[in-house]
Amino acid sequence: MDFEDELSDNETETGSDELLSADNLRLPDSANVLVRLHAIRAWLTRRQKETAIEIGENALTLQATMQEGDQSLHLRRREREVLAERVQRAQAALQAAQLRLETYEEAETLLEDCIAHTTSGERVLVEYYLTLEELMSDPSTPEGTAAPRLHALADVQHRIEHVGAPNEE
């Protein structure tokens, strides 16, 4: 009996997505552009899931810190200041994670747009990379959101460089 026959299509796809989303993925130079695109999609999906988990963890940390403040009404001034700083750090971490998630989602949408509007399959990753480059240099990015957004966009560009075909550079 063949083991592959026993796996459902969903299980096979999930397994391949896990392999293709790995940070240390090495594709051969001869890998098809469709495999490269799937590797980027799978990686973006993984980053979105990881960032969503991070958002939940940050929200729990913020909630616990705020509850600690509510239960400690008789704190000294310095202790209140330390607690307020912890609340601010937790809020900043939560907001940064939310911005990264939004950026990964936007990057996924942009990838699909590039796929839909680029006639040459070999050119899709180049167009996608250049689109991300334009976003990174956009001066209209609101103050305070630039760092998490730029970090996520650079992360996506690094992934393209990592799995992109050598002759696309």
Describe this structure in words.
The chain is mainly α and 169 residues long. 75% of the residues lie in helices and 0% in strands.
Low-confidence stretches: 1-12
Oligomerization: single chain
What is the typical, i.e. mean, pLDDT?
84
Largest sheet: none
- Secondary structure: helix percent: over 70%
> How many DSSP-defined strands?
0
Helix/strand-derived category reads mainly alpha
Instruction: Please give the count of helices.
Output: 6
Q: How large a portion of the residues is in β-strands, by DSSP E?
A: under 5%
Instruction: Give, in order, the helices and strands.
Output: HHHHHH
- Kindly provide the radius of gyration, computed on alpha-carbon positions and rounded to a whole number of angstroms: 21 Å
